[in-house]
């Protein structure tokens, strides 16, 4: 399911859901993923709550605590929250559309949900993301942009996150 708290020109819930399906299949991630496109304000709140970082971030991934639900035929693997504000800023700076930038961030979040972690995997996620970006016909990925950039604003401001132990439900 895709939820827009802030709209992106040229991007509908239906078109993003189709992209999510293609990206999941390309990443071999089986299960449902919910997407939230929201504001910097909301992302700041999420980043503060789950990462103790009081600033907005571009994308956060939230793996599901349990991947199977009795009511669902396919497992639920997690949620991805994206800042429309940061996506639009990056798109302008990098010369592509906001819709493309959101898709880049969705792909990045899906790879986190699939278990990749670019902070610890010696480039494995970057290589996978670059391959899938080409397959999905997207402009430069987050990890590709960050690997060659010295601009602090281009560095990742996100992470796959799990609720702290005190926030988990039984």
Helical content class = 40-55%
| Overall strand count | 5
For the biggest β-sheet, the strand order reads 1-2-4-3-5
Q: List the helices and strands in order.
A: EHEHEEHHHHE
Secondary-structure-based class equals: alpha/beta
Q: So what's the oligomer here? A: single chain
Residue windows where pLDDT falls under 50 for at least 5 positions: 148-170
Q: In whole angstroms, how far apart are the ends?
A: 24 Å
Strand content: 5-15%
* Major beta-sheet overview: 5 strands, mixed
Question: How are the secondary structure elements laid out?
Answer:
Elements: E1 2-4, H1 13-27, E2 32-38, H2 40-51, E3 59-63, E4 76-83, H3 84-94, H4 98-113, H5 124-135, H6 142-147, E5 159-160
Parallel strand pairs: 1-2, 2-4, 3-5
Antiparallel strand pairs: 3-4
Helix pairs in contact: 1-4, 3-4, 4-5
Describe this structure in words.
The chain is α/β, with parallel strands linked by helices and 170 residues long. 42% of the residues lie in helices and 15% in strands. The chain has a 5-stranded mixed β-sheet with strand order 1-2-4-3-5, sandwiched between helices. Helix 1 packs across helix 4 and helix 3 crosses helix 4. It is globular and about 30 Å long.
Summarize this structure as a short list of keywords or feature phrases.
alpha/beta; 170 residues; 5 strands; globular; disordered C terminus; five-stranded mixed beta sheet; 6 helices
Summarize the model shown.
This protein has 170 residues and is an alpha/beta fold.
